[in-house]
Amino acid sequence: MQFVDEFRDKQLVHNVLDEIRRTVTRPWVIMEICGGQTHAFLHYGLDQMLPPEIELVHGPGCPVCVTSLELIDRALAIAARPDVIFTSFGDMLRVPGSTGDLFSARAAGAQVRVVYSPLDAVKIAAENPDKEVVFFAIGFETTGPVNAMSVIQAQAMGLKNFSVLVSQVCVPPAMHAILSSPLNRVQGFLAAGHVSTVMGYWEYPPITEQYKIPIVVTGFEPLDLMQGILLTVRQLEKGTHEVQNAYPRAVTYEGNKAAQAILQKVYESCDRNWRGIGKIPMSGWKLRDAYRDFDAEKRFKVSDIKTKESEICISGLILQGLKKPPECPAFGMLCTPQNPLGATMVSSEGACAAYYRYGRTA
Amino acid sequence: MSNQEYPTMEGPVCPVPLAHQERIVMGHGSGGRMTQQLFERVFKPAFDNPALGQENDYAAITLPSPAKLTGKLSVSTDCHIVSPLFFPGGDIGRLAVCGTVNDMCMSGAQPLYLTAGFILEEGLSIETLAQVVQSIKIAAKEAGVQIIAGDTKVVEKGKADGLFITTTGVGWIPAGREIGGANAQTGDVVLISGPVGDHGIAVLSARGELGIETQIESDTAPLNGLIQAVLAAAPHTHVLRDPTRGGLATTLNEIARQSQIGILIEERAIPVSPPVKAACEMLGFDPLYIANEGKVIVITPADEASAALEAMRACKYGKEAMRIGVVADEPKGRVLLKTLIGGNRILDVLAGEILPRIC
Lengths: 362, 359
Description:
The structure holds two protein chains of two kinds. Chain A is an alpha/beta fold.
């Protein structure tokens, strides 16, 4: 397949790996922010091919993982209503709330449908005028524009029966939260390629300056990932801290301005609770007042549902890169993809699920 | 009295019941005249054979060549539900025949007979049913099996998805043939009869929910011809298994667990057609977990592997057969994949429903 196979070329990947081996002289801790990158590392077995000096820690970049338990409980409450068709990305259905997941809600009679695009949810709303159609608008800057677009489209169509349960989060505040933690171990970042496709990388220079840490915008194919690591290691070895773009075929400095404009139009910044991490100030988006009629939390009055997280699960420490999945006593025993305790085991992009699926027990 | 003409009255009568020849109604499952009419009209012409023609509640069959019957019977049942009922490359009828024929074949059996149970949803078009039955007829003929008994029930609208079919097969395992999931041995070679993932992606895209259009056709096919060819070429074959639900990865894991051996697979060698690969890339699926309905995994001693591979490639449904791996002592009960890049990873079973990834 063109534009994919080239970036999975074994020889090219090994050439970059050799260059990494020649460059590295001492231990470095590098975090890949994005869950898609975590999976790609493990899917291709790349993490095991890296020289032992390089330790990868897996960041909080899986939107399914970081959606707070409280919001999932609110989603379950809304989905259980007989007048509601609840729509969601597929991954979200398996995420456990405190009383079950959306799969069990569906088995109990709730109308829960998987959609591939929030615009499909708008279509369902238009086709079902006697039902309330709710879309679970989760995700980072990548899903933000299309989620926001669903609201704009519903408004343009005059739909009164469409609303969104918003759980939008942003990458840069999470990077700040990790880097400013006294326990932080991360010395270099692979920035998420897809997020940067939308947002560009103009948000990163202040972070490299403030924390003296290199950030390399990185793609998702094996060659992309190796190139990202190589550029990061080169900077670490030289002691520089710049923003570099190792994914120029998809990412520009400015990013996708049209998408950013849609985000600005529909959303404004707000504090968000991250599952396992807690509240990060101004780390997410909510609907602007002009769109408050589309806010499912208000429409269904679920804002007073408050929930505490599981006490056994260490997904918070994992999402911050402080622990590896096998260090959790529940990993693979009490907690498996069939019976996940925490969100990092639920999503196919979650670090625990990735470790479990690819048989990494140590 | 006026001269007005009145219609001729034959005394008070009830209206004549409608024949209901367009759609299935509850009466078609009553066991009475309507059921009989449906049988006469739809099923009997398609499946005409002496056993079915007896019109008993059972089929009495004379086993072929009784003198040679010194092996074992292979019996297999499979329920078939698929939405939509018709998809590129097949339909629920072809699936219902091939699914059970293939399950029987995996013991090395020669499939002989099938029975078919139909659950029909009220409102199903009889034309649709007739098309499905025609497709069963064609697939059964291709597989060389007879449909010797069947049943039909009707459920209220909304209680089924058009049509469900359960088929049971009876086949013949010649004496001395020992094939099963627990028989894989260290040193054996693992073969696959062709590209994986076609069926699952064909059905998914036929549902029209993916927002993509593909040219991918389901691989639904009866494999008994191919399997007889493999066993003639590689008589000491240890394992035959069709990677249906859960895909290649899940099926290999079942074999590894049953045989308590390790299976080492070369990702590079696994055939996946470019359209399936592209659809999986876009949707966030892994083709190794997507269902197949016309593929078989063959695990055979190394010295017979080339002959088995050649035999497969000479068959209609095995032209793209590949050698994809070997059986080893370790890791016991697990499947290890050597990735495209040369790294290793454990290939696990499918956890639950296949869910598309968010980004």
